[in-house]
Design a protein that fits this description.
Blueprint lengths: L2 H11 L7 H11 L4 H8 L6 H12 L1 H19 L3 H28 L6 H16 L1 H9 L51 H99 L1
């Protein structure tokens, strides 16, 4: 299986409308059945989350704008590495302004494609753009246009981008820019009006198909949310166990400190008594020495 073939196929699939992704992917895998390895890899491509899809769309539709975001991010990382405080503060302000502006632009691009972006999704888009500016690996993931999930960065630890892209080879790949497709105009022609019952049945079938597609997409998003909750719950249990261990160790250290403090007090008392004894003995010795000297 050639990596270039998989990347080319993925590039086209992740540029498609979000609702068309799964049927287009499955159809493409079926076309490639002669190459079982490639077909299997195509079939395994994950449907992107809405936020990831909007970022992928932005990368293809507004390549110059995204390039500016990544360029500012590269300068920001360089300023941080050189500890240039003044430049870092200026670039940080520019980063915040730019990510907010590009997020707004991403919402507009999505709207042009017929997709409404909620504030929650917009926050994920802005988080992904911020991660691309703070982390070089996240920048590569965004540039690929093959994101499957949104990204987040702390600015301290490196972003784990391996699970956020469709295939590992996406890192280093650049998405193919694409112009917005014109909205197709329906052909206008006169057709005979079907019987009312038949027309109602067809409309009901269309409504059912649309509802089923929406339900399937919502089910996928629910499964993703369940997985995220499970991961976070497991992480919470791990952190709680580590916190309990630290508390136990702190209690041990406090007890040891108190015991040492008590022993120190006793040792200081013993030292005082010993000093007094030595002083008395010295006084007696000096008197005896004086008496001896007189003889």
């Amino acid at each position: 299986m050639a990596e270039a073939d998989l990347l080319t196929i993925a590039d086209a699939l992740y540029a498609a409308p979000l609702g068309d992704f799964t049927p287009a992917r499955d159809a493409r895998a079926k076309e490639l059945k002669a190459d079982k390895a490639l077909a299997s890899s195509v079939k395994a491509l994950r449907k992107p989350s809405l936020a990831a899809w909007v970022v992928n769309l932005l990368v293809r539709r507004e390549a110059d704008q995204v390039a500016q975001v990544l360029a500012v991010g590269q300068a920001l990382r360089a300023a941080r590495a050189s500890l240039d405080g003044e430049e870092l503060r200026a670039l940080t302000r520019q980063r915040r302004q730019l990510t907010a502006a590009v997020t707004s632009q991403a919402r507009g691009v999505a709207a042009d494609a017929g997709v409404k972006v909620t504030q929650a999704v917009a926050d994920q888009i802005e988080s992904t753009l911020t991660a691309a500016m703070l982390d070089a690996g996240a920048a590569e993931a965004v540039r690929s246009g093959l994101l499957v999930t949104a990204l987040a960065a702390t600015g301290v630890d490196a972003v784990d981008v391996a699970a956020a892209v469709a295939v590992p080879e996406a890192l280093g790949f650049t998405a193919t820019p694409r112009e917005a497709e014109p909205t197709p105009r329906p052909d206008l022609h006169v057709v005979p009006d079907p019987e009312p019952d038949e027309r109602a049945r067809r409309e009901a079938e269309k409504a059912f198909a649309a509802a089923e597609a929406t339900r399937a997409e919502a089910s996928e998003e629910l499964a993703t949310a369940h997985a995220a909750v499970s991961d976070l719950e497991a992480r919470g249990l791990q952190l709680q166990a580590e916190l309990d261990e630290l508390r136990r160790r702190l209690a041990e250290l406090e007890a040891a400190y108190e015991e040492n403090d008590d022993e120190l007090g006793e040792a200081e008392d013993s030292r005082g008594e010993a000093e007094a004894t030595v002083a008395a003995a010295t006084k007696v010795r000096d008197a005896a020495q004086a008496a001896l000297d007189r003889l």
